[in-house]
Amino acid sequence: MSFFKKFFSKEKEQDLDKGLEKTKSNFFDKLSRAVAGKSKVDEEVLDELEHILISSDVGLDTTVKIIERIEQRVSKDKFISTSELDFILKDEIVQLLAENESEQIEDFTLHSNHTPHVIMVVGVNGVGKTTTIGKLANQYKKQGKKVLLGAADTFRAAAVDQLEIWSERVGCGFFSKGMNTDPAAVAYEAMKKGLDENYDVVIIDTAGRLHTNFNLMRELSKIKTSITKNMESAPHEVLLVLDATTGQNAIEQATKFTEATEVSALALTKLDGTAKGGVAIGITDQFKIPIKYIGVGEGIEQLQIFNKQAFVDSIFKK
User: 219-233: per-residue pLDDT in tens?
Assistant: First the structure.
């Protein structure tokens, strides 16, 4: 039984396959055209493969690594047929991703020495940040955890209302000071509530500011500092939410946010709505920060643990 089979139900596997359908179709359609009429992997095929990987938003740096590794195999084995290319490409991607030594979590079980366990969620507007918070809260609530959502995204229209709706849907606690209030103050008081009322998990939503604005990114540092005032070890996670449909812009956002705050994990959303799922390969390769969660559909249960092997298996599944 594979590692993937041990921890993923058939339903989860089907959700992943469906979520990556556009990426898979886009990738293999292009690959099939690239090798049509050719019997071996030559320089022309590799040039086409390089273009395919880049256009699938794997990213230039990661694409170069993959092509160089395949070139070494071609040089060593002298002759590699185009029919073998799928296997070799999959093998090289799996090996490349395995070099990221981030711990592979198996499920949503919360392993924490801290009560409450505090998660600060960051990301630009429109990436699915609030939805990801709601889905994550649902997973912890199913474990019997007492969960509090703190509405520190106080500037975006309806952000507070959206988070409150999610808290009601999930059946968890909610703290807000309303719109146009100080986000750092909201985070501070949400933390105090979490401690005073013995919550197991506190998730703080933050303003989805443009990652190019230094002053607004500095606001994230203020929020983090206000959380620490109530609990020195908090936040225990800083989760950056990225939208897969933005492709290489997601990598740019990750770069900027990791410069601005100590991001410890990534969530990649909307994989079901894009052919740019290859960005997950580039992000995993280029950042030492693990992709922890992926969104493969709009359903409340369609937030999944990111498993590198399962992800590649799904893309290459015939």
Answer: 888 999 999 999 999
